[in-house]
Protein: Spore protein YkvP/CgeB glycosyl transferase-like domain-containing protein
Amino acid sequence: MELNRIIIERAKDGNLTCKVEVDGKIKYIYSKYQPMKNIYIPDISNSKNCIIVIGLGLGYELLEIEKRCGTKKIYVIDSDEFFYNSIIENEEIKHIVLNSKALFLFGDEYKKLQHIDISDTQIIINKNISSISNEYIYKVANHFNKCIVNKKILFFHHPTIANDCIEALKNLNYNIVMGEYILGLSYGEIFSKIAREMPKYIFTINFCAEIADIADKIGLTYISWTVDTPNYNLYKREVYYKNNIIFIYDEVIVNDLKDKGVKNIYYMPVAANIKRFDEIIINKEDYTKYVTDVSFVGSAGMDNEFNSFSKFLSEEIMKKTIDLFDLQKKDTTKYLIKEYIEFFDKAVKFENEDSMSILTKSERNAFLLARKFNEIERRELIDTISNKFEIKVYGDEAWKLIHGNKLKYMGQAEHFNEMPKVFKLSKININLTRIYVESGLPMRVFDVLGSKGFLVTNYKSDIVRYFNNGKDLIIYRDLQDLLEITEYYLHNEKERQEIIINGYEKVKREHTYDVRVKQLMNIVVNHKKL
Structure:
């Protein structure tokens, strides 16, 4: 973008505002009604002795920063002198720069700041001028990124395993700064947070295309650990960026993306926080609330795309879909829906298909049908078990639509404190890994075993890769097998307890977050960009 001129004028509230001509187009960068309401200043870090402000604007931001920062050294960096000269020429606001203690640098002059300890510096982006100076801001941020020698990780929040990962990273002596949950942030807010912290690494649970884009522009290493399927961000063009180091819990997805040309991608199963589980205290009220023969924790799966448009499908397509589901039920050890999806490809088109540039239409449709199959599979499992055994189900309210003879819907189970109690006090915990998770294991497997719970689960190749069937846990083949397993272990307490201890010790020894995160960071530290 080329800034042609700056026009300073009076806003509706009496303050000065401005608009700029960029590439021949006029736009306001402060409000023409109340410009002071456009000013955003993040909290000034008490632990940093230096502040770099990228983008001068009308100087309102600088004025506010100087009020808050005390004796800190301030540098203002701008792409050119347009705003500086415009302020100097205006009698009403020229005092902002003339009385400022800041050092002003323009163009490439920021490269002279070689003496600055970037780990002791807070970087603040002037959001009002970011829309007209993005490329310059990326260039400046990239320059200072090369000066980073710390072990700081900016870890964006995630509702389940983020805290477990952070605890393990701190045990490895990494300096962790916590970011907000990504889903609630705009691109600009994410960029400002990253630029402010200037970490050595950015870390998220599940790959995020927006963060990959920002990391690529700034030159930061972006670590992601995908633990959910489907994660559609993995199929966007940003997955190819060289600054990514991508970990995924399902090796089939890893190999598929490698076949599509994605580099810097590794298999990494999830884990359990044994220390946190061992500290859970069970009281009398917990026994009353959670004790049960059988429990199931998870969504009903009814909130899926198929349910929203199935009424628009022809009778022929619906019949073929039902036939495919029946075929899949006969062998749940294979992802047959993906193999026989061709008939469905002509029936459905997504508006945002093009945004997932490396996900084929057949792959997307397979996910869609598989999510519906997951709903059917879960409903049939709960129907079958609840007609014979006492079962408590935890999850979304869609479970209320199922009325088994011995089913009790318990609402949502809070992840950190309540869920481990469920696992500990259920005689049998059932795990049903979704059909489109082809080889990996969900967190549920490790959480149940790590909580000293008895686990009965369907088959995935990683189950027998890491655990011994009949010793650490029990694998069921089909619903009839599940009924027989449940009946047997409800009446054979000694064997059940032996399996509980074996499974717990296996996880404690080999599958904690301390073990897994150490493996992960060893790969990161020794990683060479491809």
Residues 36 and 456 are 60 Å apart (CA to CA). The chain has 21 helices and 19 strands. Residues 361-386 form the longest helix (26 residues).
